[in-house]
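In this supplementary section we document a worked example of the pipeline. Step one takes a protein sequence of length 152 as its only input; no multiple sequence alignment statistics are reported here. Step two produces a three-dimensional model, which step three serialises into structure tokens for compact storage. The input and output of this example are shown verbatim.
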Amino acid sequence: MFVTNHPGVGSVPSTMNSEPGDPAAVERAVTERTDAPTGGETVSLDVRELGPPKPLRETLERVETLGDDDVLVQYNDRTPQFLFPRLDDRGFAYAAVETDATDAVVTAIWPADGERGVSDERASEGDAAASDGSLPGGPGATDQVPGSASNS
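The serialised model returned by step three reads:
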């Protein structure tokens, strides 16, 4: 599986030709096979052991500290689907790939074209949803149908 919001990025092979458990090799392979900048610092963030909404919150906090040429490489136990719209809103590019080199979904995140930001109001709305667990499909979420017994 390959997910990106960056135009012109081709697919990233799921076999990264690195030793399992070698984070430096995985990070290098992900950044080299995407349009992520390679001139800055690569920061690693492993959120596999965190319960929702902590991976989303931790990642959003960390990406705000990235310099223009820095890349955050997130290790997650699933594709971070609720993270992607928030990264788009904040002006970050990303590429996520499931690899055979690790049991994680690896997502590279970097500032897109040096232009980050969203209106403070919209960003805080998303952060509030992440903090209180009211994300779609989050803790306590139900798919209720109007008129069903669960709505009574």
